[in-house]
Amino acid sequence: MPAPTKMISTRWDQADGHTLDGYLRTGGYEALRKALAMAPDSVVDEVKAANLAGRGGAGFPCGTKWGFLPKDVFPRYLVVNGDESEPGTYKDRLLLERDPHQLIEGVLIASWAIKAEQAFIYIRGEMPHAQERMAAALNEAYAAGYIGKNICGTGWSMDVVLHWGAGAYIVGEETALIESLEGNRGMPRLKPPFFPASKGLYMQPTVVNNVETLANLPWIITNGAAAFTSFGNEKNTGTRLFAVSGHVKNPGVFEVEFGTTTFRELFYDFCGGIREDRLVKAFIPGGGSAPWFFEEDLDTPLDAGVVGAKGSMLGSGAIVVMDETTDMVKAAWRIVKFFAKESCGKCSPCREGTNWMEKIYRRILDGEGRPEDVSLLLDVADNISPGLTWPPKQTTICPLGPSAAAGALVSSIRRFPAEYEHYIVHGRPVDGLSTGVYRTSLVPVS
Amino acid sequence: MARFSPANLERAKELLSHYPRPKSAAIPMCHLAQEQDGYLTEDAMAHIAELVGCSNAEVYGTATFYEMFKFHPIGTYVVGVCTNIACLLVGGEELLDHASDSLGIRPGATTADGLFTLEEMECLAACTEAPCLQVNYRYQNKVTNEGFDRLVADLRAGKRTDIPRHGTLGAVRQSIPADRRAGVKAI
Ligand SMILES: Cc1cc2nc3c(=O)[nH]c(=O)nc-3n(C[C@H](O)[C@H](O)[C@H](O)COP(=O)(O)O)c2cc1C
Ligand code: SF4
Ligand code: FES
C-alpha cells in the first residue's frame, strides 16, 4: 500500500510548527542561508533543474516562468497567490495556517532568485485564521532579521507584505489578483499585450506563484534538485497535496509522490473506500473547472500529462468523488451555478452564457425542463468555448467561462444523457438518485 | 461613527505605508472600516478615497466587487453555509435548509433582533470537513443539525467568545518596522 511522502506537510502535526521556535528547531531558515550564499541565477537554475511545476492550477514550470522576467528592469515584485477558492481545493490554507515560516522562507528564496525587492502574500479574505498565523510569523521573521534590512547579515534587503482579499473567486486568476492588489475590482487583464512577467503589478515585472509552489523551495534548496527529481516521475517531480472529498469514507488532504499514485489508491487505500462500499460514478480530478472522470479512469496515475491526455486536468489537486447514487444533473448544476455567480462580467460570452446555462439548469431541476434544453445548454456552452474540447478554446479574457462550458456541464451531458432526459420528461431525478433534497422554495431569488 | 476614529486613522496610515502605491491600501482599509462600524458606510468610503487619493466612486466601485463588504447594517453573526460541490454531496444544502428553518430567515436575510445574517457560501477550502460553515469567517467543520442548533444557542448566550462580531479582522496584525515601509521609501 502506498504511503504519504512528506516534504512540505512535515510540520502539520507539530503543535508549534507555526512558530519561529518550532520552525528553527526543525531546520528552518537553513535553506535561506544556503540560497543567499549562491548567486541568484544559480538558485533559478536549481529550481529549473528540479522541474518544479506550478501548483496553482496551470502547472507551468516555476523556473521557466522566472526566466521570463526582462533583464535589468526594476523594481520587480513577487506576488504569492493564496486566494484558494477553486471548488474542492484545500491545501494552501493548511500550508498558511500550519507552516507559515516555510512559505516565508520560500518567498525569500524566490525573491533572492528573481531579485524582487518586495513580495506580497495575498490571502483569501475569508481566512482570518490563516491571516493571523501569517501576520504572527511575518512579525517574528522581521524581528529575527530574516526579512527587512540586511537579511541574515548578507547586506541584502527586501520586504514582505501581508495582503488580504474580500471575497471573489476570480481574484485567484493571476492578473485579477494583481488588479485586486492595486486596489481595483478584481477583473482579469487582457493578455497579450502584457504578461505579468513583463508588466504586472504597477506595470513592473512580476512573478505570481501559488502558495504550494513556493513552499517547495526550502526543500529543493536544502536537498538539491537531484534529490527532488528522485521523487515522482520524469515530468512530475516532487510531491503534490491532494484534497479528497465527497463520497469517500475518510476524506482528507494527502501529500503523495507526484505522478505515481493512482486515483484508485487514493480513494481506496488512503480514504478507506467509497461510503457504504458503493461504486464510483464520477469524480472531479482537479477542481470545479475540470472535466469529470469515471469508474474506468480509476487506475489513472496522478500524473499531470496523463490526466491531460485523457481530457481533463489535475489542476489544483482537488478531487471530489461521487458515488453511484449521485444525481449528476444536480451536481453539474451546482458547479455551473458557481461559475455564473463568480463570473466577473468583463466578457459577454461568460457573463451572459454562464447565467443562461444556470437558468436552464434551474428550470430542468424545477421540473420545467423543455425538450430542447439539453441541446440549448450545449449550444450556449459552445458559444463560450467553441468545439467544447479540453483544454477549452477561449472566446474570453480568462478561462473561467470556458471551464464552466467545457467542464462539468459537457462531462455530465455526454456521459449521462438519460438522467437529463428523465428530469425533462418526469420533472424529477431518476429514482434513487440525489445529492440530498432540493427545495426550490429556499433558493434565494436572483 | 463613520469616518475613521483617531486610533483607526493611525492604523489606516500604517496600511498606506505598506504599499508603493496608495490605492493598494483601499481594500485593507475597507476591512478596517467594516471592523469599526460593522459595515462599510459612505462616509468611511469617502475617508478612504481621501487617504488613498482617488474618487469616492472608485472606492465604491472596488468595494462593491467583493462579497465580504456590506453596505448596510448586518447581523452581529454572519452565518455562511457552504453548498458547493463537496458540501452538497454530504448534506450542505440540507444544512442550509435547517439553518434557514431554525433561524426563520432565508439566505441573504437578517433576523429581526439583528443577531444573525444567513448566507449561502461558495467553497470555503474545507472540503474534507464538509458540510461546513463559517460564522464571521471562523470555521465550523462537519456540522450536523444538532451541532448547528447548539452553535446558535451558544452564540445567543454569548458563550462563543472565540467568534468576534462581524467585520472583526484577525487578532494579530502585521507590523512592518518603520524604516522598511515601502510607502515611506517611495515618498
Ligand atoms: C479562474 C481562475 C482562478 C484561479 N484561482 C487560483 C487560486 O485560487 N490559487 C492559485 O494559486 N492559482 C489560481 N489560478 C491560477 C493563477 O492564475 C496562476 O496560474 C497561479 O497562481 C500561478 O502560480 P503557479 O505557477 O505557482 O501555479 C486561477 C486561475 C484562474 C483562471
Ligand atoms: S471569462 Fe468570465 S471571469 Fe474571465 S474575464 Fe471574462 S467575464 Fe471575467
Ligand atoms: S465545497 Fe464546501 S468547503 Fe469546499
Major sheet of chain B: 4 strands, mixed
Fraction of residues in helix of chain B? 40-55%
- Quaternary state of this entry equals heterodimer
Q: Based on DSSP secondary structure assignment, what is the total number of beta strands of chain A?
A: 9
Q: Give the helix proportion of chain A (percent range).
A: 25-40%
The low-confidence parts of chain A are: 438-446
Q: Alpha-carbon distance between the termini of chain A?
A: 49 Å
Judging from the principal axes of the Cα atoms, what is the shape of chain B? elongated
Total beta strands of chain B: 4
Taken in chain order, the helices and strands of chain A follow as HHHHEHHEHEHEHHHEEHEEHEHHHHH
Mind explaining what this structure looks like?
The complex is a heterodimer of chains A (446) and B (187). Helices cover 40% and strands 11% of the residues of chain A. Chain A has 446 residues and is an alpha/beta fold. The model of chain A is unreliable at 438-446 (pLDDT under 50). By secondary structure, chain B is α+β, with helices and mostly antiparallel strands. A 4-stranded mixed sheet of chain B has the order 2-1-3-4, with helices on one face. Chain B is elongated, with a radius of gyration of 18 Å. The model of chain B has no long low-confidence stretch (mean pLDDT 95). Classes of the chains: A alpha/beta (446), B alpha+beta (187). At the A-B interface, helix 7, strand 3, strand 5, strand 9 and helix 14 of A face helix 2, helix 4, helix 5 and helix 6 of B.
